Amino acid sequence: MLVADDHPLFRSALEQVITQAYPEAQLLSADSVAALQAQVEAHAQIDLLLLDLHMPGALGFSALSWFIGQRPQTPVVVVSANSHPETVRRAIDHGAAGFLSKSSDVATLQGSIGRVLAGERELHPGLDANASGASLQSLDVADALSNLTPQQFRVASMLVEGLLNKQIAWELNVKEATIKAHMTEIFRKLGVQSRTQAVLALSSLAVEPPGDLAAPPA
Q1: Does residue 42 surpass a pLDDT of 90?
Q2: What pTM value is reported for the model?
Q3: 216 found inside a domain
Q4: Going edge to edge, which strands form the sheet with 49-51?
Q5: Per the structure, how many domains does the chain have?
Q6: What percent of the chain stands above pLDDT 70?
Q7: Domain extent for 52
């Protein structure tokens, strides 16, 4: 089971919750999208992903969309401090098998994880998924993102951050020509013609960050 959350205390708490319920489970962790992608590349089998939406390298539902594209048979439970009804509804529309608030207690977390592993879809009892769902554009963008390589995904994320090709090349320690090639492929997959259009398309996946982090589960 893979726990992807950039908050070390909460990540540790989630791992303890899983260990209590599944002492034989092999636990993997990631504190960024790059680390998540590295775990996917390193492990042929992942049975469950617990995913925070707000991690370094992620734009809203981008990490969720990419992972589901790579591992469509692996259920994903979003565990977030942002439990606004629209966020919950969009996460489910983008393929999450469940959504839990970071304020959930241990029993709720363990019960929901168990039901998702059994093949059910599970929402925290206090959450509402009846708000407006994902737009057709965001679903199309999610489908395109699911087909990006990890490096193309990183380039796309940096593009949204406003970095120029030469800056992205420096950050990734590659030649600028390599970044231009990645950009061409990203534009093709997104069905856009320019950086501006690409940023606007990718921004359809954005989610408002939570006001503050919830406390780790007790």
Answers
A1: yes
A2: 0.84
A3: no
A4: 28-30, 2-4, 49-51, 76-80, 98-101, 122-123
A5: 2
A6: 90
A7: 2-123
